[in-house]
Design brief:
The complex is a heterodimer.
Chain A lengths: L5 H23 L6 H19 L5 H6 L5 H31 L5 H21 L24
Helix pairs in contact in A: 1-2, 4-5
Chain B lengths: L2 H8 L7 H10 L4 H5 L1 H7 L1
Classes of the chains: A mainly alpha, B mainly alpha.
C-alpha cells in the first residue's frame, strides 16, 4: 500500500469493495441484474466523495486520508474497537433470538459471534497479554508491587 | 501533528505519548516536565 498515495488508499479500497459487491450482484442477481450497474455507480461516487472529503482539515478527514497523527489514530482505533464490540453483541443477541424462536439459521449468528470472539482472542495474543519480558536484571522481584501509583 | 491535536493538548483533553512529548519539548527547547507537569503549571499560575 506504500506505493499508493495516503489520501487515495481508503477511497480506493471502498471503490474496490463496492465494485466487488456489484460483481457479486451481477453474478447472482437473476432478473434484477441491472442493479449491479447502479451499485457500481454508487460505489464509485462514494469513493470519489471520500477522496474529496479526505482533503479537508478535520480529524475525520485525516483518518479518511490515512494521514492521522497519534491522537487521531487512537480515536480511529477506539471507534473500530467499539464497532467490534457492537458486532459481537449484535451477533450474540441474534443467536439468542434465533435459538429462542427455534429458527434453523442460528448457526449464522453463532459463526459471526465465533469469528468476532476469535478475533478478540487473536488480538490479545498478537498485541501481547502474555508473560512479560524478562527485565534487564534477572531477579527483578516480580512478586513485589510497583511503588509507582497514579 | 495536526492542528486539532495541538488544540487538544493545549486544552488538556489529550496527553501525548512519551515520544511526542519529547519531540514537542525538544522543539520548544524545554524539558518535558516543565512542559507537561500539571502541578508545576498550577504552582506557577
Amino acid at each position: 500500500m506504500k506505493f499508493i498515495r495516503p489520501r487515495l488508499r481508503k477511497p480506493l479500497l471502498r471503490g474496490i469493495a463496492g465494485l466487488g459487491l456489484a460483481g457479486a450482484w451481477a453474478i447472482g442477481g437473476g432478473h434484477a441484474r441491472w442493479l449491479a450497474i447502479v451499485i457500481a455507480i454508487v460505489a464509485l461516487g462514494n469513493a470519489v466523495g471520500w477522496y474529496v472529503l479526505a482533503g479537508n482539515d478535520s480529524d475525520d478527514a485525516a483518518l479518511l486520508g490515512s494521514r492521522g497523527d497519534e491522537r487521531q489514530k487512537l480515536v480511529g482505533l477506539k471507534a473500530r474497537a467499539l464497532a467490534g464490540v457492537v458486532a459481537m453483541i449484535a451477533a450474540y443477541t441474534g443467536l439468542l433470538i434465533t435459538l429462542a424462536v427455534k429458527r434453523s439459521d442460528a448457526w449464522q449468528f453463532a459463526a459471526l459471534f465465533a469469528v468476532t470472539a476469535f478475533a478478540y482472542l487473536f488480538g490479545l495474543s498478537s498485541y501481547g497479554s502474555g508473560e512479560p519480558d524478562a527485565a534487564d536484571d534477572t531477579d527483578a522481584g516480580y512478586g513485589q508491587r510497583s511503588p509507582i501509583r497514579y | 501533528m495536526s492542528r486539532q491535536t495541538v488544540i487538544s493538548i493545549e486544552s488538556g483533553r489529550y496527553l501525548p505519548s512519551l515520544p511526542l512529548a519529547f519531540a514537542i519539548a525538544r522543539f520548544f527547547d524545554m524539558t518535558v516536565d516543565k512542559m507537561f507537569d500539571p502541578e508545576g503549571e498550577e504552582a506557577g499560575a
